């Protein structure tokens, strides 16, 4: 059963129908091949991190962290707060599309909690499970929550496609000589990513057909205005995240380079499925930037970044989640202790 766009502009609605597996994905060995590839990549990153960690002077790293100037820490914290505030509004797009009745304050709170847990525990626990639990407690059905989550995920990765495409094409980051991907390959990859983002916008703007069936799922295009809003919000958020690291590196590396390395680290973390990208972020930055900055300075910046962007928001999100759960239990007449 397909969805038709409403006057607000439709969400890419992908409704579950039994999908027919085709091509290589239908092979019985394909799931194992995917797992082995992910495991191999994880082992590669882990070995790289362990090798780097053995040569690090950790006393110098902690000394560098203690020596950060207060204005730089405040600037990085302000950028992190701006990023969280912006990302916490992503679910408002889904609210606009679905027309569900929750107040914007409730949506922002759920979005903030799920984002903080998503970064630290992984997308299935944070980005998906927490949203379903919290939204269901607020009265939304599973189908509506699915549409909201799908819109937020699409919004997030649209900005990634745009920025990664632009950076890799016009300002490719310097890659180590031993890597199989050279500067030309990175530019080709960037062109593909940029083309995908542009194609999405053009489809939303020009396509007369607003709904397709893709592998037994119905996909409805949003309006051009909504697509541009998605790109603007997501791109700004990725820029803010890179800005946090840029400030902690004390602006000693050009911002486009920091942005490019951060984008590479982000996709590497997704591929390895490591919660919080623990070790992956550090390994990528060390591999790509250790020639430009001392390792102790890089690690000091990245560890401080984790404290500001991961741990501090997680502490606040945990407190908010406990308050939400306590309020829900008090409001439930059948809860224990009532």
Mean pLDDT: 81
Number of continuous helical runs: 12
Domains (count): 1
- What is the overall silhouette? globular
Helix content: 55-70%
Task: Report, as a whole number of angstroms, the end-to-end distance.
Answer: 43 Å
What proportion of the residues form beta strands (DSSP E)? under 5%
Largest sheet: 2 strands, antiparallel
Question: Regions with pLDDT < 50 over 5+ consecutive residues?
Answer: 1-22, 334-338
- The assigned structural class equals mainly alpha
Question: What descriptive keywords fit this protein?
Answer:
70% helix, globular, single chain, disordered N terminus, mainly alpha, 2 strands, 338 residues
What does this structure look like?
It is a single chain. The protein is mainly α. It has one domain. Helix content is 70%, strand content 2%. The protein contains twelve helices and two strands, in the order ααααααααββαααα. The protein has a two-stranded antiparallel sheet. A hairpin with a 2-residue loop joins β1 and β2. The protein is globular and about 55 Å long. The N terminus and C terminus are likely disordered.
SSE arrangement:
Blueprint: H1 30-54, H2 58-66, H3 70-87, H4 90-98, H5 104-121, H6 124-137, H7 142-170, H8 183-206, E1 211-214, E2 217-220, H9 224-248, H10 255-272, H11 280-289, H12 295-331
Antiparallel strand pairs: 1-2
Helix pairs in contact: 1-11, 2-12, 3-9, 4-5, 4-7, 5-6, 5-12, 6-7, 7-8, 7-9, 7-10, 9-10, 9-12, 10-11, 11-12
